[in-house]
Write a structure and sequence with these properties.
single chain; 358 residues; alpha/beta; six-stranded parallel beta sheet; five-stranded mixed beta sheet; 37% helix
Amino acid sequence: MKRILIVGAGGQIGSELTVYLRKIYGDAHVVATDMRECKSLGESGPFEVLNALDATAMASVVARHRIDTIFNLVALLSAVGERNPQMAWNVNMGALNNSLEVARQHHCALFTPSSIGAFGPTSPKEKTPQDTIMQPTTIYGVCKVTGELLSNYYHHKYGVDTRSVRFPGIISNVTLPGGGTTDYAVEIYYEAVKSGRFTCPVPADVYMDMIYMPDALRACVELMEADPAKLRHRNSFNLASPAAPAAVGPYSQAIEANGTLYLSGQLPIDGATGAMPESIEAQTRQSLTNIGHILHEAGYDFTHVVKTTVLLQHITDFAAMNKVYAEFFTAEMPARICFEVAALPKGALVEIDAIAVK
């Protein structure tokens, strides 16, 4: 990416992505556009008022600024879309169609965020595969599924470099709620200050997946900077595994780059219960099970693992660990490093990372 256009820069993602990209690529190389004037975005770099439904105007901006990458962030979100499904379809699909056509005509790469809203009631709730049943029951979800398919079509038919990720709800302390299903997670604080109370619309037994905005922004950049020849999927990526425990620090469970999957060290924590078993045998099995969940979510398995690192609290546990470890690698054994460390997070006895290649 050298010269970037953000369409819909005034929204939740766009207002922060513009600032994020300008820090990386330079203020002058990131052109922000929105249908309304955004003074704050115009102060730090180029800004133009643009209606994303006007394909001619969009093409003009791309040509004048010699754009090579487009971020299409225009969308009416789920809660707003259900109030006016026809308008949601026209806006969401109109902006995408124009972005695809302009990208095709001007040889630009195109990023359009998808959503877990693309899944539906019949989609698997646990260990959701990359390619699975997708029958959403909201117009927002219908638009996202259609967008993924249309973007794939433009890639296969015309060679357009289209990419996207399926975002969960995004949590931000910068922008106000914008009409999404997960807005309550931010709105609760505004309402607490405004009225002193807030009634959560989500039942107590329902879980809503979330992602912190800085992680979402990083995902956008890392995907768009990846070598296109090495991408196994384009529209759209699942990567974080709900079956494996969430990262306990500022890092990702795994990152796929240039055809290689790099897995962070996995502690022996049960992703469903948060519990950690006691024995070295049980902990080794849990750490490797977590690695298996992440491999599966990314379309890999243990036969693709080429290297691991095993960290032990006590090197005297080596033989017991090794016996369980051998159960998971039944083909050619990957290269490995194993050593004792002074301490591991959460008092674990073992932590294992991995690198997988197809």
